[in-house]
Amino acid sequence: MSHHSQPTYDPNETITFSPALTEEMKAVVAQFPEGKTKSALLRLLHLVQREFGWVSVPAMDQVAAFLNIQPIEVYEVATFYTMFHLQPVGKHVLEVCRTGPCMLVGSDSLIDHFEKKLNIKVGETTEDGLFTLKTVECLGGCGYGPLLQCKNRFHEHLTLEKADALLEQYKNGEIQ
Ligand code: FES
Predict the structure, then answer these.
(1) Which residue, of 42, 46, 47, 126, has the greatest Cβ tally within 10 A?
(2) Which atom of ligand 1 lies closest to the CA of 141?
(3) 136 ligand 1 Cβ < 6 A
(4) Ligand 1 pocket, 106 CB below 6 A?
(5) Cα 150 to Cα 11: distance, rounded to the nearest angstrom
(6) Domain 1-88, CATH 1.10.10.1590 — does that match?
(7) Where along the chain do its domains lie?
(8) Are strands 92-97 and 131-136 parallel, antiparallel or unpaired?
(9) CB neighbours of residue 92 within 10 Å
(10) Which of 142, 154, 157 to mutate to test the pocket of ligand 1 (most atoms within 8 A of CB)?
(11) Which atom of ligand 1 is closest in space to residue 107's alpha carbon?
(12) Mean of pLDDT values over 150-163
């Protein structure tokens, strides 16, 4: 298992940040002292992901140019934090914690179950574009495992039955 998603890279791809995004990025950078603007990197990556739904290599290159730093400095941050999607994702990103405490209470079976149920492997997206399955490190809810995060919502103490019910709720729009 790899800790990182592999960034999708098309050397011919170009990207344009919207004027609104560029203005927001400038406002964030302006909050940092001169010579320390690299500290704005995480916030800029979040803004880019909010606009595009994921963080592509050309987007990272543009962030590097914006901050006047090397692209590798952006790649190493974006590939370290699992909250950044390095390839396009589905409408709902199911992020299952696989760290020790969650593993001890069944996260492995839960991940297997999602793979079978959705007919995808970890890191992949269902054909209908509805779900992406990811595994992540500790989400800070270790006493509530097995734990899954989707957007800003935690789903706790998951059993296989609860997982099935959850998928149905996402599918029929009961949970957005
Ligand atoms: S180990 Fe799963 S939330 Fe901490």
Answers:
(1) 47
(2) 3
(3) no
(4) no
(5) 31
(6) yes
(7) 1-88, 92-171
(8) parallel
(9) 20
(10) 142
(11) 2
(12) 95
Atom of ligand 1 nearest to the CA of 100: 1
> Class of 92-171 per CATH?
alpha beta
pTM: 0.86
5: tokens are: 């998603």
